[in-house]
Give the backbone structure.
Amino acid sequence: MNKKWKIIISITISLLLIIIMLESIIIYSIIDYYTDYISSKDKFYKWAYIDKSGNQKTRLEFFEASSFSEGLAAVSISNSSPIKYGFIDTSRILKIESSFNQVGFFSEGKAPVLRSGLFWSYIDASGNEVINTDFCTAHSFSDSLAQVSNFYADFAYIDHRGNKVIELDSSISFADDFFEGLASIEVNDKWGFINKKEEIVIPPQFDFTWKFSEGYAYVIKDNKTGFIDKNGEIKIPLKYESAYSFHEGLAAVKIKGKWGFINKKDEIVIEPKFQNVEIFSEGLAPFKKNRLWGYIDRQGNIVIKPRFKRVGLFKDGYAPVQFEILY
């Protein structure tokens, strides 16, 4: 066989392999498409708001919805691409038009928004842009500061005028928001806390830390969770499988795969019997049972039976809940 024929045969085999590969991709794509279509064609999900009695207070008109914060809640009223977000007030009327690609929640009078492009800005409660930034991430304000970062993941904090007031050292690979005067940081895969003077007040020593709330922060080390105070002293031993922050005097903890609540004396006040829970807000906490969510009170009594696909926290008397709709 001469060289010419060898080249022709080689090219032909390569083309056949490419055709076979493309056919496989097309076939699997079709299978994936119809599998997704069949599994979802008879149902979809929409959000509404309920009151503390579980009564539905809005129509099922939102494709996404958040809890209220300072009287405003982010919502999306269309699932067409690109999804746009706006804000409703507690009368459930759209107060700030749906013109943002991404949004944060209102805090200290402002909310971070991404209208278009790459850089975030901040708006006030009337929807007016009050801070324009050149940052690719921007958090809501907390303790009069907002955490921001650029493309290189350099973390900083700005004030209400948009001025950069804290710029962290590059050795800090992650920094969270300030709460109660301290912010959790990650250095060399260990977590600790800094103050607003950029001083490390609790040395990085934990596998993970979360924000301070009601004077305590939950920390994780060697796959066990407990709570420390602002001096870094362990106040509740690291013995739980998982935990959430203290809110309204109670913290959710996980024991043997079930969730319950403890107080600051490390006493169990709601027995661990739930599939999942969230924090307390306005006297109620979401809980999960058989893949559906409802709400319990501070005594662990079921106030709103589990019937929602997803839920948010009660704020300003209302909570967002997601319904599964069959058609």
About this structure: Residues 68-167 form a domain with the Lipocalin fold (CATH 2.40.128.630).
